[in-house]
Sequence to fold (265 residues):
Amino acid sequence: MTDLATLHPALEGLSADIGVVLGSGLTSVADAARDRVAIPFSEIAGFPQTPAVTGHGRELVVGELGGKRVAILTGRMHAYETGDATVMRAPIAILKRLGCKAALLTNAAGSLRTEMPAGSLMAISDHINWAGASPLLNDHSDERFVDMSAAYDADLRAAMQRAATRSGLTLHEGVYCWWPGPMFETPAEIRAARILGADAIGMSTVPEAILARRLGLRVAAVSSITNLAAGMGPPLSHAHTKEVAGAIAKDLATLVVQAIKEFDV
Ligand code: HPA
Fold:
């Protein structure tokens, strides 16, 4: 049995070039993959077995998308579910073990910029780890000292911009701030985040970006803006996040497929 098959027999012989992580309301993006092998997270050795946050899938889909081999995590686990910031370690590690050279991370986020309202897409150019937690705790190797000075790959971001232009989509760029959640922010916290330099805020992605960089994967990330952040618009709710994320999913799916075509991996 190969190393991969010890995690799940259906992984035997599979490989992928690009890993994709789908955020709230975006599960349908995986439906476009061809030659799909879909494996429930619950059957993969070492995967955390927390119940899915509503709006999130719970499958690893390996197949073909945008002319490349992809491994798609149709949903993610969040640090806010159990307080464990290392929760995405096994899912990101499997992308590496499948052979992925790059990871494309997606999420739903709130916007701190009125000119980037609900319905917008934002490529993440850098992040602020405001949760102050690390997914690398208990990693006792020297590789834990990850250089984060260019965590989000500029060439992959340029490829996403080309893909957006080709698809007639506007792709904003900005800094994503990791908020620990699961409660949303207060208006005062949003004003503080703006002073810190945040353009968008959400409860995920940063641990995955760190884990992917730790494993040497190049990282691209894009936020679906589901709302203006707290104090900038109407009150917030997860139901609203899922509804708007679902409405933007078509645009995001287009961007993901076109970007994967453009990625030089
Ligand atoms: N804050 C945090 N997480 C989010 C938001 C938000 O405004 N919108 C979607 N996810």
Remarks:
- Helices lie at 79-82, 89-97, 154-166, 187-196, 206-214, 238-262.
- The pocket of hypoxanthine is lined by residues 108-110, 179, 184-185, 201-203, 226-227, 229, 236, 241 (CB under 6 Å).
